[in-house]
Amino acid sequence: MSLLSFEQINDELDNMDGWIFKNNRISKSYHFDSYMEGIKFVNILAEKAEELNHHPDLIIGWCEVSVSFTSHDQGGVTSACLKMAKAVEKL
Length: 91
Prior knowledge:
Elements: H1 6-13, E1 20-22, E2 25-31, H2 35-52, E3 57-61, E4 64-69, H3 79-89
Antiparallel strand pairs: 1-2, 2-4, 3-4
């Protein structure tokens, strides 16, 4: 799987609310009413990541979970990153 160009990434992100491209990764923060709701989200996300075999970097905070995708093997964003980000939006 090859890296996507800046233009390809931004064209996709134009249709994905809240996602940004920075430092060779796409990222978004999700906010929750409680810490445990965020943890439940992370558990569901982890199952989806295993299913699609593409895993996010996560930062878990108080009522907030930051999700980012990059291909560590490729050193940037691939179509798998975008596919996973779109899957996260449906959770």
